[in-house]
Design brief:
elongated
Length: 93
C-alpha cells in the first residue's frame, strides 16, 4: 500500500478528488438531487476505488501510471454516485 501511495503522490490524490467532485456535481445537476450528497459520494468513490484495487492486489493500477489511476477514479466515482442514487430512489418510494 505504501508503494501505491508513493506512485500516485499528492497530485494524483488532488486530481482524484477533483474528478469525484465534478462527477458528483454532474450527477446532481442531471438528477436534480442534493449537490452535497452526490459530490461527497463522487469524491469518496474516486478516492476509494484505486486504493481498494491496490489492496486487492490489482497491481496493473499501481504500475500503469497516472492516466489509468484517474480513469479508475472516474469509474469509482460513477459507481458510488449510481449506488447513492439507487439507494436514495428506493428510500423515497
Amino acid at each position: 500500500m505504501e508503494t501505491f501511495l508513493d506512485v500516485i503522490g499528492v497530485t494524483a490524490l488532488v486530481l482524484l478528488a477533483v474528478i469525484g467532485l465534478v462527477s458528483g456535481l454532474i450527477a446532481a445537476v442531471v438528477t436534480g438531487g442534493s449537490k452535497a450528497k452526490y459530490i461527497i459520494a463522487g469524491v469518496l468513490g474516486a478516492l476509494a476505488l484505486p486504493f481498494v484495487l491496490a489492496a486487492l492486489g490489482v497491481t496493473a493500477v499501481v504500475g500503469a501510471g497516472l492516466v489509468v489511476i484517474l480513469l479508475v477514479g472516474v469509474v469509482g466515482a460513477v459507481l458510488v454516485v449510481a449506488l447513492v442514487k439507487a439507494v436514495a430512489g428506493r428510500n423515497r418510494n
